[in-house]
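Title: Prediction job returns without error message
Component: structure pipeline
Severity: low
Priority: P3
Assignee: unassigned

Description:
Job completed but the reporter wants confirmation the result is attached to the right record. Sequence as submitted:
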Amino acid sequence: MKKTFLDVLEKIRKRVRGRSNTTIMKGALVSKDSIIGDYSYIGYNTFITKAKIGRYCSIACNVSIGLGEHVIDDISTSSLFYNDSYTTLTSKECVIGNDEEG
């Protein structure tokens, strides 16, 4: 059974890779394939997918980052035509800040 983009999104949990000095507010979701740098702030109900966020970045509340781009030169932009929609939609890099290392 092929996974859809929505299947992957339902499994996303709030997490930060060992960063006790980064603040993630209630309701925010950060995918496992995202990296958040030291001393960054993620606001309430923010959704981050497959992104690299540098140090000392402040992300507002209710923001969606890295949700992907549809292929616009195919027959349709619908993700129903993708074999692995999560990988296809998030294939381009999403970097915020100038510190890619986090």
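Comment from assignee: result matches the submitted record. The chain is about 10% helix and 20% strand.
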